[in-house]
Amino acid sequence: VTATQLDRVVVVGAGLAGLRAAEALRAGGFAGRLDVVGAERHPPYTRPPLSKAVLVGEATLDDCALHGADALDAHWRLGAPAAALDLSAREIKLFGGERLPFDGLVLATGAHARPWPGDAPAPAGALVLRDADDAERLRAALSTGPRRVLVVGAGFIGSEVVSAAAALGHAVALVELEPQPLARLLGPQAGALIAAAHRAHGVGLRTGTTVERFAAGGAAHLSDGTRIAADVCVLALGAVPSSGWLEGSGVALDRGIVCAADLRVLGDDGAAPLDRVVAAGDVVRWPHPLLTAPGEEPLGVGHWSNAAEQGAHAARTLLATAAGVERGEPFGEIPTFWSAIHDLRLRSVGVPALADETCLLEGDLSERRGVIGYLRAGRLVGALAIDANRRAAAYRDRIGQPLTDATPSALRSTGTAPSTPGR
Ligand SMILES: Cc1cc2nc3c(=O)[nH]c(=O)nc-3n(C[C@H](O)[C@H](O)[C@H](O)COP(=O)(O)OP(=O)(O)OC[C@H]3O[C@@H](n4cnc5c(N)ncnc54)[C@H](O)[C@@H]3O)c2cc1C
Questions:
Q1: Which of 27, 65, 246, 377 has the smallest count of CB within 10 Å of its CB?
Q2: What Å distances lie between residue 375 and 49, 293, 364, 369, 380, CA to CA?
Q3: How many angstroms is it from 35 CA to the middle of ligand 1?
Q4: Quick check: helix, strand or coil at residue 7?
């Protein structure tokens, strides 16, 4: 039995994970018909510059293009979102009614910006940032001024947007529900450094508060009684996996697509993997061999390197199982992430949000430089390098291991870990 027995593969999602999956299918010998379905009209591009260099005019959207799509001999259906999956007919249905039959399927629909949750509507013209069109709208809004910019949500995207807006000379306010920016993901020590960086760059940071309602004209009324008037309002409330179109299809869904360790998609009827259906990228939750203990919730990771590596891995699993192998290799790459917030350079390995304890591995945080270690039950689950980018990689091989040689420090005490495990 050979991989050539796959005649028709459909990849849904023309982003990073979808592109890497298509490349790995061809590299792995798949010579059949390949359809790539993308909701956006753009060919695949990379998102990290959208909240950084693009906003300050140091890169254009053309600079973000991911190359390699042309060489794949694929049928690209861009600007054509998939509407439904019919597992019994083995077809993807597009909006407009067209049906694409498949014998192998890769689901890589990523995530979208979390919409405003309040009962009262978000202000007309409030912006979000997930895709290239969003970035173009935000870049245009920030290209004149100075203006009053309000960013709601101090996660990575919100903090990066604030950095860009402050660098462009705008008057920036940042509102965050948690006590520190990014504390839920990186813990309060890193949160305090990021908060200090915001304040040092003139950002009006208000933590522990939220927008209760937006008044006509865009002014935000906060739960602490403050009113913030703004010309530009950006909602940076996090990302939601784009799996809603699969409701009722037979795919196991739980805040994303639930997969087996080898990235085969599970069915919703008792968790057996579906035949020749795999998934990759931000839309996936899967049991990580090192980071997910037995019985624990599967992991979801919204990082660039994870999407790229999962795309290729899912394709290899599809080829192997179509060739008769019972299951693919478990996907056990260690997630990595980088971010630039004002003059702070952050790089993480592992998943700091899983920790119940933190420690200082290197450096001195009072000098804004060092490596924070994140532990769960005494084992390293993440490390965050602050202005010490190259040091993060040193801990990659130690993820999942017990940590015996950490510097005892004031960081090591209860209550200092990220507050909520999760995405
Ligand atoms: C502004 C921004 C900055 C970022 N910066 C960093 C960073 O500095 N470092 C880092 O590690 N990560 C960063 N990330 C995260 C990283 O970009 C994502 O992890 C990565 O893009 C995920 O790739 P993906 O292919 O899984 O999903 P996506 O890139 O979201 O691609 C999925 C594609 O599927 C399409 N789609 C959705 N639904 C359908 C449907 N029904 N039919 C067809 N197509 C569909 C979407 O339109 C999209 O084009 C950033 C993300 C954003 C938005």
A1: 377
A2: 31, 14, 19, 20, 4
A3: 19
A4: coil
